[in-house]
Design a protein that fits this description.
Layout: H1 2-38, H2 40-55, H3 61-77, H4 80-134, H5 144-174, E1 193-195, E2 200-201, E3 212-213, H6 218-236, E4 263-271, E5 275-283, E6 289-297, E7 303-311, E8 317-323, H7 327-345, E9 348-355, H8 360-374, E10 379-384, H9 390-399, E11 407-410, H10 419-427, E12 440-443, H11 446-450, H12 459-462, E13 470-473, E14 480-483, H13 484-489
Helix pairs in contact: 1-4, 2-3, 4-5, 7-8
Amino acid sequence: MLRRGILAWVFRVVGVLVLLCCSWLLLYVRTCRSPLSDDPQLHALTHAGPNLSGQGTTQPGVGAGGTGGAGAMSAQSGGPPGAQSYQMLLQEREEQHHLHISSLKKEIAQLKEALQEHSQQLKGVQESLKRAAGGTPEGHEGGAGSQGDGLGEAQGAKSQQADLQEFLRSQLSKAEVNVGTRFSSQYEVIPFDSFTLQKVYQLEMGLTHHPEEKPVRKDKRDDLGEVLQKALHSLNTPAPSPQDDGGIAGKTQSGKVYTASDFIEGIVRTEKNKGSLYELSFRGESTYELQRVVLFRPFGPLMKVKNERVDTSNVPINIIVPLSRRTDKFKQFMQNFREVCVHKDGRVHLTVVYFGEEQLNEVRSTLENTSREINFKNYTLLQMEGEFSRGRGLDTGARAWKGGNVLLFFCDVDIYFTADFLNTCRLNTQPGKKVFFPVLFSQYNPTLIYGSREHIPSMAKQLVITKETGFWRDFGFGMTCQYRSDFINI
């Protein structure tokens, strides 16, 4: 209440000063106009121009124009006293004009000084309110009047803090993390940046940044470091009751103590009119358990959105690959599939939709050899007639699945992915709520990068994310992770 009263007083003072300036300006304009109406020579000059111009436009204005012109010419070509008086009048008005401008500048400077003084006073009152809210009000031992002032300041500080908390929660309630947003196209969606303990993978890099870089800017390092510490504190702190956490159920306290080494990756994006959203994933207590922490910074202190345990042990992924010829690329794809999907993850089904009959036997042989060598049976080979159509192939592969609402990953044969990406796919999809469109890093031709085919290194050494080796393909939406029900219904 005290702060509102001071602000109202400041606004009143500024308003009165502005009104005074406007009154002075109006008075000055009237004083500049009054001599022109009193002096007959100047009055004739002001009317001579329009009348003379009327002489060339309409015939009835010739007499009036001639008369006005004669009067004006006689005023200018008369004796020297008339010309001198006119020049003296102009000089006098110019001097008055300069004096008035200088006085206005002085008044503006005084208003600025007064405004700065009032701002300093307001800042001092705010600091006193903070001190009153943090400890015993000053003057507690100085009498009843001082005690009353201290209590009033403390109540005002509490009311201010309550208003701030209400505003921050309203920002959180309006953010996209809690309410869905309709977009007219996919290009209106705000992309996420991904980060680890050492690197930040940013999409909007411009000409001076790199697609992968260490957070060299101090504000970015401090921001991500604070987010990580907040997430670890949330994981290692016993959860309060649902009533104390705004109705959001917290985590069940366990014996595991989470550290920075358990952090896998995080994603972040900023809604410029609401705040920044952070989603961090950690290794859980078991092999197939992950821990996700969602934080939101509503342009102020971080607020915990949720702290949930995500069990991915029963979330298989059906990878659908439409294909036509390109058997060499398919063999290379199967090598990576064997290492990542079979040996490391083990919860993947492969669906290959092949168009035509040319080289079909070679593709079938590759799948059978892989199945026989590593005892892998979770694959399906579908044959389609006609020309290659990626959309038709993905639709056929998705509808061919009969095992329930499975998570789908639409993939091309020249895509390289890791086991961590499969978990990212699981974490960022929810049936009926969320689909995931990863932004791919497109590599340049290795022959152009390394000079010649003889200097091209192994595939593992080629997988480097730098400005010289490729770019983020943020304009492509062909790769996606989504549940089968969402694909069929939408």
